[in-house]
Design brief:
440 residues, 11 helices, two-stranded parallel ribbon, 2 domains, 69% helix, 6 strands
């Protein structure tokens, strides 16, 4: 009975399991998987948690502390008794307890600035996570487009092989009736072999591209893994801004790296104020209670001694720095240098962003021009090949003519496929700089 149930279960659910294994991944699926399994992002998330803990620590520093102190001491004292002319040793046990608390009233706004700096560092850490996410997403996009290109190349290779095999079958029939020579037939056979080799290379390139994407996603290599092909024609028709000045102005307001660098400057500016505060007076409110017991008062029991010896106190303490061996001055100078370095970092990031955008805009403009030019070339090569093939079928041309025309068409098709996906990639990168989500 158990075997029958198992067979029924496998019969019903095996197709579902197979479908799950062969699930097609969209670009969004690939990005989501990569983000969830990224070590860099997980490590950055931990940095965010650390900064959040530091913020809590800075806020808690404003609260009063509370300390309980206990001290027990055993003593033995020798006293000389002049009347009896002898030494007497007295053993004594004491126990002292204290409960103390202190809260800072003023320390040059150091506590407030520490909280402000911790908040700034937390925001910067969160932006670091966002930077990693966007970098991974762009890498996934590039790999995804590479697979789409490899898929189209594979389709082209299959069509080319099929067309050549049809020509071979036709040529063999013509050879039988003596219309063409053996040399022409062998040239067609050679082209079939070449097309088969090209097909194998196309299959290998596709497999390598799929493995590369899975590795980017930190996914174990799965033979069933495949991606969804979007509507390429619709994507090609999408227009995007290619003016570098306009794109740069928009990207300055959106890029997490720019925001993070600006926050780092703010953090170091606050650090200067924190360093300066060490040269200012510190005012604190403190208070507590003390109580004790001594065995020398053997006529008073433990509880009564503790109850009657409770001494509460409250007071203010003021600490005024006079000479600190240039420690504060040095710390202020270091904080100023760190702020200056962060300003240089921001300038460097802005310059890199501007250069990247200028390059991407140029590439996108070139890609569009190239795409249109090669599209015209491809249409011309198709017409030429169709005319050549028709003349070949009528016996007006030999195999060399048809192979030359076919190879020209293959080259044009490969160039067009490359240009098409290069245009898509460049436009999608520009959309990212414009603040649009990375999708296909």
């Amino acid at each position: 009975m158990k075997k029958h149930i198992l067979i029924i279960f496998l019969t019903l659910y095996s197709p579902l399991i197979l479908f799950a294994d062969q699930q097609m991944f969209s670009l969004e699926d690939c990005i989501d998987y990569a983000l969830k399994n990224s070590i860099d992002i997980n490590r950055s998330d931990n940095d965010v948690k650390i900064q959040n803990a530091n913020l809590g620590k800075s806020k808690a520093a404003r609260l009063p502390n509370l300390q309980l102190g206990l001290n027990q001491q055993l003593s033995s004292v020798s006293n000389y008794d002049a009347i009896n002319n002898e030494w007497d040793r007295n053993n004594n046990t004491t126990l002292n307890a204290s409960l103390n608390s202190q809260v800072t009233l003023y320390n040059g706004s150091k506590l407030i600035n520490s909280i402000r700096q911790s908040k700034t560092d937390l925001e910067a850490a969160e932006l670091t996570v966002q930077t990693y996410k966007e970098s991974i997403s762009l890498n996934i996009l590039s790999s995804y487009v590479t697979i789409l290109l490899a898929k189209d190349n594979l389709v082209n290779s299959k069509l080319q092989l099929e067309a050549t095999q049809e020509q071979l079958a036709y040529s063999e029939s013509r050879k039988k009736i003596g219309v063409i020579s053996l040399v022409e037939l062998l040239k067609i056979k050679s082209q079939v072999a070449t097309d088969k080799t090209t097909l194998i290379e196309a299959e290998s390139n596709l497999r390598i591209a799929l493995v590369s994407l899975m590795q980017l996603m930190n996914m174990p290599v799965n033979e069933e893994f495949d991606i969804h092909k979007p509507d390429i024609d619709k994507i090609i028709e999408e227009k995007t801004e290619t003016d570098p000045d306009k794109v740069y102005k928009i990207a300055l307001e959106l890029q997490p790296q720019i925001k993070e660098a600006a926050l780092n400057i703010e953090s170091f500016m606050t650090g200067i104020d924190i360093a300066k505060a060490d040269a200012l007076p510190v005012l604190a409110l403190n208070g507590g209670i003390n109580a004790g017991y001594s065995s020398s008062m053997d006529d008073v029991d433990f509880g009564e001694q503790f109850t009657n010896s409770i001494d509460p106190y409250v007071g203010l303490s003021l600490s005024i720095p006079i000479y600190q061996r240039n420690q504060v001055k040095t710390q202020v100078e270091i904080a100023k240098i760190q702020k200056n370095n962060s300003e240089l970092d921001l300038s460097g990031i802005k310059n890199s962003l501007r250069k990247n955008i200028e390059l991407v805009c140029t590439d996108a403009q070139t890609a569009l021009t190239t795409y249109k030019a090669i599209q015209e070339q491809l249409n011309a090569e198709k017409e030429s090949y169709n005319a050549t093939n028709e003349m070949y079928m009528r016996g007006m041309l030999n195999s060399v003519d048809i192979l030359i025309s076919k190879n020209d068409l293959i080259i044009a098709e490969n160039k067009f496929t490359q240009a098409k996906y290069n245009l898509i990639l460049q436009n999608k990168i520009l959309e990212y700089y414009l603040g649009n989500s990375i999708t296909l």
